[in-house]
Model the fold of this input.
Amino acid sequence: MDVRNIGVVVEDVDAARTALQWALENIIRYGDIITLIHLYPFTSSKSRKKARLLRLKGFQLALSFQHICNNFSNTKVEIVVTEDNQERMKIVESVREIGASILVVGLHDHSFLYK
Done:
C-alpha cells in the first residue's frame, strides 16, 4: 500500500475538528502522513510582532489538532503554519508543496473557501 499525504486545514472552529476526526475514522490508513496546515492572515511588513504572535497562535492551534491525531495509533503528523497571501492561494501552494493526495476542510459560515 502506498503512503499518502493527507492535508488537513486547521482553523479554530468545531467544523475543522469534526472534519479531522471524520478523516481519522474514515480515510486515514496505516502509515499515512497527516499534514496539519494553518494559514494566518496577511500582515504588513511593519507588523512583525503581530505576525510573530499570529504564527505562534497558529502553532498552538495545530498542536491541539495533533493531540487529536495522537489518539489514533500509527499516524505520523507534520505541521505547516504559514502566512496567507493576499490572493488566498497559499492553501493551494501548500497542498502542492507537501504533495497531498487529499485535502480535508471543515466548512463553516466564515470559511476561507467562500472568500
User: Anything to note?
Assistant: Residues 49 and 55 are 10 Å apart (CA to CA). The first strand starts at residue 5 and ends at 9.
